[in-house]
Design goal:
alpha/beta; Aspartate Aminotransferase, domain 1; Aspartate Aminotransferase, domain 2; seven-stranded mixed sheet; four-stranded antiparallel sheet; about 40% helix; binds pyridoxal-5'-phosphate
Amino acid sequence: MLADRILGVARSPFYSIMELAASRDDCIYLQLGEPDFVTPGHIAEAAKKALDEGHTHYGPDRGAPELRQLIAQKLQNESSADYGWEDEILVTAGGQAALHIAIMAMANPGDEIIILLPHYPPYVVNAQLSGAKAVYVKLKSEDGFVPDPAAIEEVITDKTKIIIVLTPNNPTGSVYPEETLQGILDLAKKHNIVLISDEVYETLVFDGAEHKSLVSLPGAKDHVVQVNSFSKTYAMTGLRVGYLAAPADKVLQFLKYHHTVNISANVPSQRACITALKGPQDCVEEMRLAYLERRDMLLERLNDIPGIHCQTPQGTFFAFADIRELGIPSLEFAEYLVKEAGVVLTNGSGFDYEGFIRLSYAADPSDIEEAMDRMKAAVLKMPEVLKK
Ligand SMILES: Cc1ncc(COP(=O)(O)O)c(C=O)c1O
């Protein structure tokens, strides 16, 4: 009774860890991809006010005009990129919907979509749902998980339609330098490929690293579809608002898909986004600094565990740690940590990258401390470690 297109999609490997974790009531969760901060008060208030004022009906399908104007202004201010608010911005139900819409609207069955490993798993699911083939390029930890455009070019064929670029990156935390983005854009121009630029972690950069948007590069607009979101920047994942920025002819086609699935994005939430963009940005900086402190604490403790090595991530709230020395598959290690220590994190194999684990430091600092204590004790008990 069900369609092959959905039956062909594997269930996320994260569920098995979550199910295992549900069997204990003392778990510390370092696996979540969402801010643990409360949504800033003025933003939440705007959503409440919208409800009280009766903004509970369908909105314009492309998104609230004021919000689209603010997004276009943001693109201009931050990236010197010209996007028309009327027809080049589409407000969606989160970055997740934006990704789905862009891929479903652009990829034909048989097309190839280049995805860098480790990946954000929904990229692959979207490729599968569209009938396109995911083509992988494995990034190297010794390169800081920053892609080499020449390695990407090696897998380009006449079927390549899309390359997905994600910086700052989930799960690695790497931030791509401008020359890397320029190199990828040059490939897009040379081979007539579209770049889906997922920038949902754009404000979460550290140590002087700068987030450079692909759309800020000269001549990028015709080759880039920007996916963005309010979720991470303003700790408002549950309000479900993101957007697409692209040339008008693409947005017109994206709109067909968006209208069919959502009609419009959540109207009170869009009011919250207007307030977020118009209001003070101190909350964004405060959260960033808090993540930075947690990152440093996590990294110090993590690198003190035998057999685990982690480079310092320059962005997001994820650390991607090398566990190859431990000599066990990442899923097995993640399961062991839940059972032995009640620490929940994500196996690298879930991102198609064996030998690594992802830890989220969007968690309470005392929980991070406790998790690191438990993790170290658990690792020290491993026969693989005891042998050494
Ligand atoms: C890389 C990446 N892109 C997109 C999303 C989607 O976020 P949202 O739909 O909340 O905007 C996420 C969420 O975790 C993500 O990690």
